[in-house]
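Last lecture ended with a question: if I hand you only a sequence, what can you say about the shape of the protein? Today we answer it with a concrete record. The protein is OB-fold domain-containing protein. Below, first the input exactly as provided, then the predicted structure, then a couple of comments.
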Amino acid sequence: MAEHDWMSDVRSLVGRQYGRIYAWDRVNEAMIRQWCEMMGVDNPLYTDTDYARNTEHGGIVAPPAMLQVWCMEGPEMNHYPPGSTDEDPYEVLKLIEAQGYPSVVAVNSELDFTRYVRVGERLYYTTRLEAIGEEKTTALGTGFFVTLIMSFFSELEAGEDEKVGEMLFRVFKFRPAERPQTQADAVGEQASKGENEAAPAPIPRPRPGISDDTRFFWEGCRDGELRIQRCTACGELQHPPGPVCSHCHSFELDSVAVSGKGQLYSFVVMHYPEVPPFDTPNPIGLIELDEGVRLIAGLVDVDPGGLEIGQRLEVELRRFGDDLTLPLFRPAAARADCE
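The predicted structure:
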């Protein structure tokens, strides 16, 4: 594929180094503890002062996977602390977008850790535009793979700042592929023109993959019960289901019907891509059941912008068609209001 004339200006940016982005806070125990709680990490090296003091590190260190977290801007976009550069390391994406490639999707990121970071260190990162690939056509559309390298440093009072890690971040900046017209589209167009009053057939919900390990779960939904796998050897519940107990490694497993009540542990709201038959925006929650296990499910009868961690939810086993019942969750008060 011949190179566009305008790409010469874009490619001239390859190799450019952008200035520092500082962390708002020095590495601190409170943020480490909160991150570990949210991620379910219980390594005492990160949270137990006495334990960490007796290790080679001499004190608490931050989990390596937190490296990117320290320098994030927070809820307000591009809100960085004083001393940070006002350069835009993503300017190349805007230049490509201006040529008719409006969409972007993160393809992958790779973190490399040089060493643990310690409590009290002040971190920053710089960004280098590493590469812009040749124009490629994928299932999403036609565009360019753009690779950025973020190098993370600890700022030292004396001597040269020390590199503590690096992140490769690659995105695909593309022009979405035109969706081929389906039979349903054709019927819809005819109906809008008055040539055919019949509405297009609704798109069905995708069916879950069912195995011998998960069959009890879907049969329970069909029968009006939310069933969770239980180990008969140690009595612990686990989800998602598996062939062996994740607690004691026993193969003696059955299931038990649970209340279906719990709280919102975490959530995301999907805005793009818009995929029928799902609603847009599409809220999806991680629900912590009162029985102690967590599961992922769609959220219904909610305001996507008003979701709150910890709000009470309850299951609704909603039927789709003749042979599919899915566990969805709605605010616990919503059902009471309807009764």
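Comments.
1. Confidence is low (pLDDT under 50) at residues 335-339.
2. Residues 29-39 form the longest helix (11 residues).
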